[in-house]
Amino acid sequence: MQMKKPNIIIFNPDQMRRDAMGHFGNRAARTPNLDAFQEFDAVSFENAFCQNTVCVPSRCSFTTGLYPHVNGHRTMSYLLHEHDYSIFQELMENGYYVWMNARNDLIAGQIPGLVYEHADEIYLGGDYPQPPGLKNPGIRGKRGEKNYYSFYGGELKLDENGCNYGYDDASVDAAIERIKNPVDERPMCVFIGLTNPHPPYQVEEPFFSAIDRNKIEPRIKASDTIGRAVMESAIREQMGLQEYTEEEWTELRACYLAMCMKVDAMFGKLCDALKEAGVYDDSAIFVLSDHGDFTGDYDLPEKAQNTFPDCLTNVPLLIKPPKDFPVDAGITKGMTELIDFYATVMDFAGITPKHTHFGRTLLPVLADRGISVREYAFCEGGRRAEETHCDEFHMFGPDGIAQDQHYFPRLLVQCDAKAHAKGTMIRNHEYKYICRLYGSDEFYDLCKDPQELRNVIHDPAYTDKVEKLRKEMLLWYQDTCDVVPHTYDNRFSYEMSWARMKQCCPKDYEETAKERLKNGDSLFEVLCDCLAIVQKQDS
Predict the structure, then answer these.
(1) Is the pLDDT of residue 1 over 60?
(2) In the 3-class helix/strand/coil scheme, how is 62-73 assigned residue by residue?
(3) Which of 36, 257, 321, 478 has the most beta carbons within 10 angstroms of its beta carbon?
């Protein structure tokens, strides 16, 4: 008797740092549900790294098991197309009912019907009242004032029911409704893509006041750094946050942690619903974020596309297997990449992938946290100088509307090819090396300098270590630079093939041979059959 395949539940907060969870030692964090989840039921990966530090490329990567460079998924404006094959399509083709909400940043929206090749059902939202806005709507100020590009909004107002019910809340409720009332007997894949804790930094009570400001971890200050990425200094200059006080940075960081607290509350609500529906034990549950957030580190809010500090690259990844799989619950320090999510889901579902991928299954780590599947993690971003279409400034244009966008400073800096230089990170537990197409490379001794303050790329004491990671990066690129599709092409068209074989094809086999060639059979295969017929006739 074949064992029923487990449900696959994917809880995907946007822009959540790994260290925003309490079980990694952040005294100010309030994530009781995620903390209990890893303590009793799941493995939490301390060294899980995304493959790109902005939304779309990261999601295109972890849902296909391919690095961003393989198919050119390196920008916010190039998503999955018809020729790209996602984990959701593979699950659908293998008997899964796939539900997702529309916050997925994954599939090219201009191609009619494409999103429904990746899901049976998509929750679109918009069928609930507009939630109330900021308690202090004037907090941003005017252009030129220090808070204008900070992304800080602060406390949100509550409605008459004492809530601020938005898209994330509605998406979780819609997912719960489908879990409790499945369409049919098929196992489900439920993908919940949240907006939180993506900036702007704003959240309602009881979360807003729940974070103890006195316990906020000290941030990494730009004034303490030497030799970091040009992108960071250029964005700082454009954002105009030089007058931001330490108290204001603390408040921004507290608001971000409060948003993470709301994420945790929604995750707890989801787990309770899975238990009420009687499917918690039978489900494989994944919690992962696409990338992190500066949250004041290096004097920056939000994120950047081609700089690779741990606050952007090191993300939450928690996995609970279904009850039939062993689990060594707790924290593991083994090196992991988000593309390993793809391989692990395929393993749980018992599916052989239809395309080449570079993920490594994490099932052995779930059974024994002492196991590690990788020595290195990689992340990449940025563009070539010639790729002006990748600067993303075209999304708004250099007018007054663009300048009102929170992202205006970052988009402006992306027009600078040197600042936005294509870069790649390789990292192990001891060192981080960043190779850039233009400008200076970076190298950090993570044991002596875990905050990545001092770029020691030119320090002779590290020459051998730099060269070792350069070689490892070259080998990685050699291994992953492209993939050959799992399909076969004919070298000749039908007309070319028939012209090559018509003189030796028996008359009574001509129509069959033509039909086979039209249907895609190879010239060699049909020709061999023709020759076999001729030999048989001659004998």
Answers:
(1) no
(2) HCCCCCCCCCCC
(3) 257
